[in-house]
Amino acid sequence: TTEAGPDVALGADLSDTATVTGLVSPLGSSVDFALYGPDDTTCAGTPIFEVNVPLAAADTMATSPTFTTTAAGTHSWIATYNGDDNNEAIAGECGDPAETVEVLASTPTITTQASAGVTTNGGVIFDTATVTGRILPQPGASIDFRLYGPGDETCERLPVFESLAVSYPVDGGSVRSATFTPTVAGTYRWVATYSGDGNNVSVAGE
Question: Residues 6 or more apart from 166 whose CB is under 8 A from it?
Answer without folding.
Answer: 142, 143, 144, 145, 175, 176, 177, 178
